[in-house]
Amino acid sequence: DKKDTKKIVSQATKSLLDMDSDKLKGSKSPEEFVKNLPDPVKRDAGFKSDEEANEYLKTHSLKEFAGRSKDLDAYLQDNPEAKQVFDEKTHEFEVGTGYKVPELKTWDQKLQEMNDNPEMYNNMGDIRTYLPEDMQEETKDMSDEELSEYLKNSDKFKERLDKDPELAQKVDNVIQKGQDEVAKRSKEIFNTTWEQIENVVISGDMQGFWSREGALKMFYSYLKSFPNFVKLHKFGKSYENRDMLAFRVSNYKYRQTVEKPAILFTSLHHAREPMGLSMNLYVFARLMFDIANGNPQTMNWVGTREIFFVPFVNPDGYDRISMHFKVHGKLLPIRKNRRPSECSDDTMGVDLNRNYGYKWGADNEGSSNKKCAEDYRGASAFSEPETQSMRDLVNKNPFTFATNYHAYGNMYVIPYNFERKDKSKTSEQAQIYKEYHEETGLGDTAEWGNSAHMVNYPCNGGAADWMLHHKNIIAMSPELGTQSGPDQDFYPPEESILPVLRHNIQAALAAVEKGGISLTLLEAAESRHAQWDEEGNSGILAFQFLFSNSGLGESYDRVNFTLGLDMVKDTKGIKDITILSKDEDTYSADFEQSSQLVDEDLEEVPSTFSCDKTSCMAVTFIDSIMRHSTRKFVVLIKKEFKNQKDRAKGFTTVKSYSFHADSENGHDYQSEVGTTTFNYNGDGAVTDNGSQTKQGVSNVIYYLGGVILVSFVVVFIVSFIRGYKKKVNAYGNLEMVRETDRSFELTPAV
Predict the structure, then answer these.
(1) Which long-range contacts (CB under 8 A, 24 or more apart) does 359-365 make?
(2) 3-class DSSP state for residue 581?
(3) Residue 358 gets which letter from DSSP?
(4) Rounded to whole angstroms, how far apart are CA atoms 85 and 66?
(5) Which of these, 71, 114, 275, 626, could form a disulfide with 407 (CB 3.0-4.6 Å)?
(6) For position 15, what pLDDT does the model report?
(7) CA nearest to 458, candidates 483, 424, 485
(8) Which of 672, 673, 667 is nearest to 705 (CA)?
(9) Contacts of 428 (CB under 8 A, 6+ apart)
(10) How confident is the model at residue 153, as a pLDDT?
């Protein structure tokens, strides 16, 4: 009964029941439409006058207006005829007459955007002033990030926003301000020098170091500037529910069909060590600068690897330091995470670098069972959400190399650290650490060894030990600093930051190189001999190419090798080029040692060849390049001679060669292949020409879109032996080297 209904409904709903719908139908504009709505409805929507409502309609639709009044929204849902009128007028105003209200995000979307883009957080304080007094009091001690998360989940604030167009507009302004700041910084990235970027890295808002908010601004600026090369990955939550963030760097322009080897950089396991954060940011910025400038080595890295940067392993502890400095201008000595205990603010929590699973709690010397100790290991292995998140990140990604930055000192601390004398590494692991030390270029300018060797005490439950033992990741914990000077502190003076970063950048880049395929041509052939048949009508020249993969990555698809041979004169008489190969599961950077690989185990690999007047090209492929291994190729060139005079000229002199490697995966690649010249002459079957050595030029090989980049100086040794007097089977049973469409046999001369 309509009369009875009026007794129990609100004044706004009562006015709607009495509303003259013909007035609404006749409205010519949104403003007139709202003017014709009953005043109680407008008051229920939060507007005291038509002027306020009209101001709102400048940036909002009628549908949004209806959503502000619960009674109007409910009335339209329960009265189909009235809703039809409302929808028709909305369509007429927004489409039929060309009137278009700017589309704004919902409050949930706005807060989500602010939560996903921490560069906005420095402006959240502006929004705080618009909160009701009780909410201002409730949030007064919150960080900007905490405030954003709080508002995102606050029904009270959502309701306030729905009824406060001024606050809604303020939120939009804050978001736009942050976006403008990112756009400006992105533009600056492409118009700056490396020295200018260095200056930004060391000009943080905390005595030269960056606060958590400030550092995230920089990371997010690069994320926006390099969408094809940087991705954000949230891989867990901290104790205080902050996101665990990883910034992933690779070439994401192409569809990822394979799993690339991954390299990991972390910092701030211990909150009071911001030098590690600066180093992380410095390496990240270096890669971005090189990508922007098309550096071929860096483009190679991002084509073949995925590089992870985890700037805040302990986000809660570092945020506490950041917020305290923002208010009081003092840096706190907080080391551990923020798990509450009866300890003081500085000593509460768990030492995250004593909470990993390998040898956790092995003794009370390498970690402590006392809660207030600075190396308290926690209640159990992986008891903390931060280390659980790191564990899951490592388990889900194919990391080959990990650098966990710490401070201070000038030491590269390597596993195993749970024992005083390092006895647990395998011989291969020890060899890789030794190689890496040489590749860093640090020499004796930094100390090198395990924890007991460096600081005279062991460390159990550490990240590097767990990574090496659990996943065979070559991991380490550099303590950043110099051997002496003012930087021997957790918070050194600003002028000390850049020298430390420059001192360690080469080691960081060497880690990126080591973590993937690092292919080097150790030797461009030692030609053991030439063989002739009994009649002297044909012969075979054999020589070898020896490659080493000193890196920890494997090729993830088939690898094509192309050999080019340029002749001094012509290619007459060359009838066949056959390639033998073998992938050794051992590695050596020494040619003399590697050249002794067992030749009898070599196998013929599928290959094709073609020659024009002055050059030949042979192409072969192998299924993979193994991790930390050596690959030998032996090339057999068969030449036929017309007569004795032709034979007396010997093999056509090879002027130069090139060796190129790429992938069949389908990615773009480019090649700048240098050459090394080797010449030899012969006057028949009598003379033994011995060996000749020539110095070659730098050769660059790309693999998979810049995938394998190799710079080397080639030493080419040719031993050309004529007058073969005894059977030599240096390459196994060469008599049986055959293919379906071509065949030849070797019979030693007598």
Answers:
(1) 359/418, 359/460, 359/461, 359/465, 360/460, 360/461, 361/460, 361/461, 362/418, 362/460, 362/461, 363/458, 363/460, 365/457, 365/458
(2) strand
(3) T
(4) 13
(5) 275
(6) 61
(7) 424
(8) 667
(9) 628
(10) 76
Looking at the DSSP assignment, which residues form a beta bridge with residue 624?
none
Q: What is the DSSP letter of 208?
A: B
CA distance 116 to 109: 10
Give the pair of three-digit tokens for residue 749: 């001369």
What confidence score (pLDDT) does residue 130 get?
65
User: Minimal CA–CA distance to 39: which of 26, 29, 28, 53?
Assistant: 53
DSSP codes of every residue in 737-749: -EETTEE------
The CA distance from 443 to 447, in Å, is 9
Q: Which amino acid, one-letter code, is at 671?
A: S
3-state SS, residue 555:
coil
| Residues 516 and 552 sit within 8 Å (Cβ to Cβ) | yes
Per the DSSP assignment, residues forming a β-bridge with 549 are 519, 629
pTM: 0.69
Integer Cα distance of 331 and 334 in angstroms: 9
Centre a 10 Å sphere on the Cβ of residue 224 and count the other Cβ atoms it contains: 17
pLDDT of residue 334: 96
For 286, list phi and psi in degrees, rounded to 5: -60, -45
265: β partners: 309, 403
Mark out the alpha helices in 567-612 (DSSP H runs): 591-594
Instruction: Give the side-chain half-sphere CA count within 13 A for 306.
Output: 20
Q: What's at 629, amino acid-wise?
A: S
Q: Which two tokens stand for residue 313?
A: 């392993």
- Share the mean pLDDT of the chain: 74
Beta bridge partners of 310: 266
Report the alpha-carbon distance of residue 37 to residue 23 in Å, rounded. 9
Nearest to 269 by CA among 214, 349, 364, 211: 349
Q: How many residues does the chain have?
A: 750
- pLDDT tens-place string over residues 262-299: 999 999 999 999 999 999 999 999 999 999 888 888 98
Task: Tell me how far apart the alpha carbons of residues 223 and 747 are, in angstroms, rounded to a whole number.
Answer: 65
- Please check whether residue 329 is in contact with residue 211, taking contact to mean a CB–CB distance below 8 angstroms: no
User: Is the bond preceding residue 408 a cis peptide, omega within 30 degrees?
Assistant: yes
φ, ψ of residue 10 to 5 degrees: the values are: -70, 165
The pLDDT of residue 50: 82
Distance CA 278, CA 201 (A): 7
> CB neighbours of 263 closer than 8 A, spacing ≥ 6?
305, 306, 307, 308, 399, 400, 401, 402, 511, 512, 515, 516
3-state SS class at 314:
coil
CA 104/CA 110 separation, integer angstroms:
9
Q: How many percent of the chain have pLDDT more than 70?
A: 66
Residues 6+ apart with CB under 8 A from 478: 403, 404, 405, 406, 411, 412, 413, 504, 507
Ranges of residues in the chain with a pLDDT under 70 are 1-22, 58-61, 63-64, 67, 70-71, 73, 75, 77-78, 81, 89-130, 141, 143-145, 175, 178-189, 254-258, 483-487, 521-537, 556-557, 568, 583-601, 647-655, 661-750
d(CA 96, CA 406) in angstroms, rounded, equals 64
How far, in Å, CA of 567 to CA of 664, rounded? 28
What are the pLDDT digits (tens) for 364-401?
A: 999 999 999 999 999 999 999 999 999 999 999 999 99
Taking alpha carbons only, the member of 145, 38, 16, 171 closest to residue 82 is 16
Question: How many CB atoms sit inside 10 A of residue 227's CB?
Answer: 10
Segment 408-466, tens digit of pLDDT: 889 999 999 999 887 888 988 999 999 999 999 888 888 999 999 888 889 999 999 99
Please measure the distance between the N-terminal and C-terminal CA atoms of the chain and give it in whole angstroms: 123
